[in-house]
Design a protein that fits this description.
Length: 328
């Protein structure tokens, strides 16, 4: 039996024209460079990786805020990578997004009611239904009592409450998928836990799926069913959150975990690479401790590894490393 997917992304690529440096040809910025994954109904998939690895660009492509260069984004019988017009409008109703900054994402001149009713107006929900739907969404987001909170302006709310308003506006149309790009990274620790448990609660109550973007592996571990680790525009490891954290197989995931478990002051060794100059072979090899340990095998420099399962991991746990069987 196959589980129903809300979205299936295959070999997604998003390239941007790069800046021209003196005397040289323009280098292409390969922000997303062949990414595939599916999200099941009610599933939370986390995308984790360093700054600049392409997480937000993957999100933007799924929301069609940027046009994909190549690949498919299949959902509800259409390909969101290429669909236009009324079919795109219908698809937009099923996918909603929450952004990082709860201060910048709300219009300071609009009341909470005006913010949350907006998607209903845009998508033509009849006027007589709107008030009930808005109050219900505020209740879902635990903005209580809804009638009173509806009259507030953003400056009267805390960061956590503002993010709840953004969540209410995202779920008011009962979407299939919510794409959340670093939704808790600007909140203080106490507000963070509340927002994360609210998201899980909405998944349970409404069956919403999430694509949850974070640079913090520990947040992904707490929240997600599955984690995809992204490095330079590619998924280098994907698997159940529990197994990926307990038994990471890719040297990059292993390094990220060490940083997460450390004192918080350590960063990954080596320079953060550029999407305008992706290394040949395995794109991680210039920073890979395993590559050095194995005396720099030519395979790592020459052959781009594909995601594969190993004999000792659960089905669906895949890593893109030539030496994955040895990375235990
Ligand atoms: N519109 C654009 N034009 C050119 N390059 C872009 C554009 N948007 C993103 N990039 C580049 O694409 C790469 C991926 O950027 P992206 O914002 O997706 O990373 P990210 O993983 O979300 O990073 P962060 O954790 O800092 O938010 C980076 O090299 C970035 O500079
Ligand atoms: Mg980003």
């Amino acid at each position: 039996m196959t589980v129903e997917s809300v979205v299936e992304v295959s070999d997604l690529k998003v390239y941007f024209p790069g800046r021209r440096s003196s005397g040289q040809a323009k280098s292409l910025v390969r922000a997303v460079d062949g990414v595939s994954f599916a999200i099941a109904k009610g599933e939370i998939l986390a995308l984790v990786g360093e700054s600049g690895c392409g997480k937000s660009t993957i999100a933007a492509a799924i929301m069609r805020l940027v046009a994909p260069t190549a690949g498919r984004i299949a959902s509800g019988g259409v390909d969101l990578a290429t669909v236009n017009g009324s079919a795109l409008r219908r698809a937009r109703r099923r996918f909603q997004m929450i952004f990082q900054d709860p201060f910048g994402s709300l219009d300071p001149r609009q009341t909470v009611y005006e913010t949350v009713v907006e998607p209903l107006v845009i998508h033509g929900v009849p006027a007589e239904e709107r008030r009930t739907r808005v109050l219900e969404a505020l209740e879902f987001a635990q903005l209580l009592p809804p009638e009173r909170l509806a009259q507030r302006y953003p400056h009267e709310l805390s960061g956590g409450q503002r993010q709840r308003v953004a969540i209410a506006a995202a779920v008011v149309l009962r979407p299939d998928l919510v794409v959340a790009d670093e939704p808790v990274s600007m909140l203080d620790v106490s507000a963070r836990a509340g927002i994360l448990s609210l998201m899980v609660d909405l998944r349970d109550r409404l069956g919403i799926s999430y694509l949850f973007i974070t640079h913090d592996l520990s947040v992904a571990w707490v929240l997600a069913d599955r984690i995809a680790v992204v490095y330079l525009g590619r998924i280098v490891e994907i698997g159940s959150a529990a197994e990926l954290v307990a038994a990471p197989r890719h040297p990059y995931t292993q390094a990220l975990l060490e940083v997460t478990r450390g004192d918080g002051h350590r960063t990954l060794p080596g320079e953060t690479p550029s999407a305008a100059a992706i290394p040949t072979g395995c794109r991680f090899h210039p920073r890979c401790p395993k590559y050095r340990l194995l005396n720099e095998p030519s395979q790592c420099r020459e052959v781009d590894p594909v995601l594969t399962e190993t004999a000792t991991t659960l089905v669906g746990h895949q890593s893109a490393c030539h030496f994955v069987e040895e990375n235990q």
